[in-house]
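Help needed: design a sequence for this.
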């Protein structure tokens, strides 16, 4: 279901004084915190997202200064919602922060300062030092392949590496346990994305080193 905000409130940092105060104000904007506005939250809001969870979401990005859109997940990659592991750097840091403790069905507007977005250099078409605003709708939250518990359960042959078949079996069990079994193409899209982002040496498996992006001692 296409979701779009009817109106957008942009926060503009203004100062009536020149000199040191204006310099400090500009610094505050560049180094500021992520601002979160909850637009909709289901009555039953669990589980909530945490670092290492596998999330599925649509999100659109806008420049705060003029409201122009620079990204739309609904038109990228055939319009499928995006799959990513939360809190591990697969999306910009400010969006990771803004999506913490979200549940499936929740919608947020997340305003991200430059330091937590695309920084001083920017990234085309986002200009340098740009504050950005994301409209996010989260579709699912599941235990991702980055939890230590999940790795142990997926590594069926205990060889300290994960094959596509092992990851698929784990995902199927998780969705079936939650009462939401899916078809093979659904799982295949998730697996393709996971291996594209994690199989750094492209050998067809995710090693313990590739998996252990948190550098936990357990592995």
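Sure. Designed sequence:
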């Amino acid at each position: 279901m296409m979701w779009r905000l009817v109106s957008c409130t942009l926060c503009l940092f203004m100062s009536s004084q020149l000199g040191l105060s204006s310099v400090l104000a500009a610094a505050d904007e560049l180094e500021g915190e992520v601002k979160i506005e909850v637009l909709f939250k289901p009555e039953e809001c669990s589980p909530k997202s945490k670092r290492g969870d596998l999330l599925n979401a649509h999100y659109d990005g806008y420049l705060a200064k003029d409201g122009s859109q620079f990204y739309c997940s609904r038109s990228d990659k055939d319009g499928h919602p995006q799959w990513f592991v939360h809190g591990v750097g697969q999306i910009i840091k400010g969006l990771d922060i803004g999506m913490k403790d979200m549940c499936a069905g929740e919608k947020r507007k997340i305003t991200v300062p430059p330091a937590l977005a695309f920084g001083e250099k920017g990234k085309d078409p986002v200009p340098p030092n740009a504050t950005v605003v994301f409209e996010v709708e989260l579709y699912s939250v599941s235990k991702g392949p980055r939890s230590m518990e999940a790795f142990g359960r997926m590594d069926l042959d205990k060889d300290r590496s994960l094959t596509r078949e092992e990851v698929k079996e784990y995902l199927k069990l998780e969705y079936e346990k939650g009462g939401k079994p899916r078809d093979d193409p659904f799982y295949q899209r998730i697996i393709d994305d996971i291996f594209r982002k994690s199989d750094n040496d492209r050998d067809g498996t995710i090693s313990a080193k590739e998996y252990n992006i948190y550098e936990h001692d357990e592995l």
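DSSP finds six helices and eight strands in the chain.
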